[in-house]
Structures are given as structure tokens and as C-alpha cells.
């Protein structure tokens, strides 16, 4: 199960991605938005990030116009590793090195074809572990220190 959400700037790409996920046999939980009206990206990014942070859902995809706003809101949630990717290399590294559990895309930057390709790369790449896990452990430690303050 993958949770997907967008604002109006990512609506078209979100729908394309949901169709692709379903075609791959991956159920897509669509957290909105559902129409072309202007909406606020934090409302939708927070839904997916909260579900991933609570471990209700293992991973998510968020799309706004640039991907920047969705990145900012998603990474506020402990346990969320949200990665804004722009090309095949960053999509691969987002999983291989960062084990990103939320993929972020810019709906006004990527064509639907390019967006789909980046999602496929992220899905098909394995986390490398090893020294990269140690680095993620340091992020968890930082989150825990911040929660105590
Ligand atoms: C909406 O106009 C736009 O600001 C939003 O989609 C996103 O790009 C924000 O980071």
C-alpha cells in the first residue's frame, strides 16, 4: 500500500501515478486533492506524512508544483525521510542511500512520463544499508534529541 497526495499543482501527475501503481498491483491510497481548485499543500502533505510517521502506511508519494512545499511539511514528521527528486540519479539515490519512505515530485517540473519513470526507479531500487544505515540512525537520534527538548 502506498499513500499518495498532491495539491492542485500535482493533481494530474498524481492521477497518472495512481494508475501506474494499480497496474503494478500496488494498491494506491489517494489522500487527495480531488479537484483542480487551489488548495494548501501542507493539508495534503501532512496526511501522508502522519500516516507514514505512525507506521500505518509504509511509504508515500507527494506532489505539488515544485515539490518544495511538500518536502518541507513531510520532513517535519519523525520517521519520515522525504526526498525531492528531479532525475533518474536522484530517484535512485533517494532509495539506495537515504531509504526515502516518501518520494516527492514537482508536478510543474516533470512530464507525466518522466514522473512515472522516477517513481518506478524509486520502487525498484534497494536500500544499500551498511554505512548508509548508520547515517539514518544518526537522523533518528537527532529526532529523539529534538523531541526531548
Ligand atoms: C501552488 O501554487 C504551489 O505553491 C505549490 O504547488 C508548491 O509548488 C509549493 O511548494
Please summarize what this structure is.
With 149 residues, the chain is of the alpha/beta class. It contains 6 helices and 5 strands. The protein has helices spanning 11-23, 41-53, 68-74, 88-96, 112-124, 131-148; strands at residues 2-6, 28-30, 59-64, 82-84, 102-106.
Describe the fold and architecture.
The chain has helices at 11-23, 41-53, 68-74, 88-96, 112-124, 131-148, and strands at residues 2-6, 28-30, 59-64, 82-84, 102-106. It has 149 residues and is an alpha/beta fold. It has a single domain, classed as Ribose 5-phosphate Isomerase B, Chain: A (3-Layer(aba) Sandwich). α1 (11-23) crosses α5 and α2 crosses α3. The structure holds D-ribose. Residues 7, 9, 41, 64-66, 68-69 line the site of D-ribose. D-ribose is lined by residues 7, 9, 41, 64-66, 68-69.
CATH architecture: 3-Layer(aba) Sandwich
Count, helices: 6
Question: What's the average pLDDT?
Answer: 97
Annotated CATH homologous superfamily: Sugar-phosphate isomerase, RpiB/LacA/LacB
Q: How helix-rich are the residues, as a percent range? A: 40-55%
Largest sheet: 5 strands, parallel
**Quantity of strands, as a count:** 5
Judged by helices, strands and strand pairing, the structural class is alpha/beta
Query: How many distinct domains?
Result: 1
Distance between the termini: 34 Å
Low-confidence runs: none
What is CATH's topology name? Ribose 5-phosphate Isomerase B, Chain: A
Bound small molecules, by name, code or SMILES, are: D-ribose
Relative strand content: 5-15%
Highest-level CATH class: Alpha Beta
Amino acid at each position: 500500500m502506498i499513500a499518495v497526495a498532491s495539491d492542485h499543482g500535482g493533481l494530474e501527475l498524481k492521477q497518472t501515478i495512481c494508475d501506474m501503481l494499480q497496474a503494478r498491483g500496488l494498491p494506491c491510497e489517494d489522500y487527495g486533492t480531488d479537484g483542480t481548485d487551489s488548495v494548501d499543500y501542507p493539508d495534503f502533505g501532512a496526511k501522508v506524512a502522519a500516516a507514514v510517521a505512525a507506521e500505518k502506511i509504509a511509504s508515500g508519494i507527494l506532489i505539488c508544483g515544485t515539490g518544495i512545499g511538500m518536502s518541507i511539511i513531510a520532513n517535519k514528521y519523525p520517521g519520515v525521510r522525504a526526498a525531492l527528486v528531479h532525475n533518474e540519479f536522484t530517484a535512485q539515490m533517494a532509495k539506495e542511500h537515504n531509504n526515502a519512505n516518501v518520494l516527492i515530485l514537482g508536478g510543474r517540473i516533470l512530464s507525466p512520463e518522466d514522473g512515472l519513470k522516477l517513481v518506478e526507479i524509486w520502487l525498484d531500487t534497494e536500500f544499500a544499508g551498511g554505512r548508509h544505515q548508520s547515517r539514518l540512525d544518526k537522523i533518528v537520534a537527532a529526532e529523539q534529541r529534538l523531541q526531548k527538548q
